[in-house]
UniProtKB/TrEMBL annotation:
The gene is ywqF. Its EC number is 1.1.1.22. It comes from Gimesia alba. Residues 322-406 form the UDP-glucose/GDP-mannose dehydrogenase C-terminal domain. Gene3D superfamilies: NAD(P)-binding Rossmann-like Domain. It is an enzyme of class 1 (oxidoreductase). Pfam families: UDPG_MGDP_dh, UDPG_MGDP_dh_C, UDPG_MGDP_dh_N. Keywords: NAD, Oxidoreductase. One of its GO terms (molecular function) is NAD binding. GO terms for biological process: polysaccharide biosynthetic process. The keyword Oxidoreductase applies. Belongs to the UDP-glucose/GDP-mannose dehydrogenase family. This is UDP-glucose 6-dehydrogenase YwqF. It comes from the Bacteria.
Amino acid sequence: MIEPIPNPKSEKPQVQCPFNVAVIGGAGHVGLPFGLVLCDFGHRVTLVDTNAAQLERICQGNMPFEERGADSLLPCCLESGRLHCATGMNVLSDQEIVIVTIGTPVDEYLDPSLRAFDQVLEQIFNHCRPGQLLIVRSTVFPGVTERLGRIVKERGLDIDVSYCPERIAQGLALEELTHLPQLVSGCTTQALERATEFFADLGLETIPLSTVEAELGKLYTNSYRYINFAISNQFYMLAQRYDADFDRIYRAITHNYKRMNGFAKAGFAGGPCLLKDTMQLASFNHNLLTLGQTAMEVNEGLPGFLVERLKQHHDLTTATVGILGMAFKGNCDDPRSSLSYKLRKVLTLDCRRVICTDPFVHNPDFVSVETMLTEADILILGACHDEYRELQTDKPLIDVFGFLPGKQP
């Protein structure tokens, strides 16, 4: 059994040996918070991204997305003179450490799509210099890191390749990056040692694994959550078929009963990671992750189930249905892979009109909460934004999450 290395520091230190660090994908939801944390610890950080408009906004001290604490940290990093932005890979020759945080999506067949990842790595290899440490933080299919190690060796590139996956919750990255244990691995003993020293110097607990163990560890983390949500969503559907209140059942069976501590609330399981990573784990594994495939069918089928239940009680052809929240989760401005959009699409086929609102996601077609409460005949909660918590209405309200007061139609 591998024992975690204890955290040697109780307070945030400044690193004793600052490095020049490039964060590839540095304007994104993973790369930007990590770059800010590294800069705050004393490293000299260059955010590298092809999104020039996003980088320009960052250079002006404005966060391009919601991230708790980042609005105040970003200007401090810029004022320190340690934070820089670049759109080209030519800056890599000046770096000691290169960190890859780009997204790795699945294709239309729900298989890992590595083409963009490979293209970025090819550019990195063309601009790298001897002695660099390459840390991959992106979610990758098992075996990808060892493949990178073989490519580096075949080309005679004198760089160390490490895989250290991120495990942050979007919106809480700055806090979690300074507290969560870090899974570290390397294609060589030297790469593992260098990656371990890098994260330990931030005062973080590090847990050494082989590269494939670290890759699986990241995929397991998100797949476990996705499957857990599917269990709850399946139970929610079963309760609905019996005209039972799932939220009352949930509260009853979890109250002072520790064996149910891991029982998730029901609700939309969307976002850019959970489904994607579950499908990456399922791909090319000879149907060994049948739980993942089933979870996808349950979670992705929830919007359609809600509409079918509504049709049993309401004539939707004459109704206006309002969706409260279009982000993929509460208090977030990221609409990527949000099931609220799938719900809107399904509703559009059956309803007279569908209207949407969200305090974080800006869309000229969205209406205000006040307009929605006036014009909608039926309300459905799509995201658990705090702004909705005290919402009062006598309209029929569907709240799968058990977040709002209201009567289930």
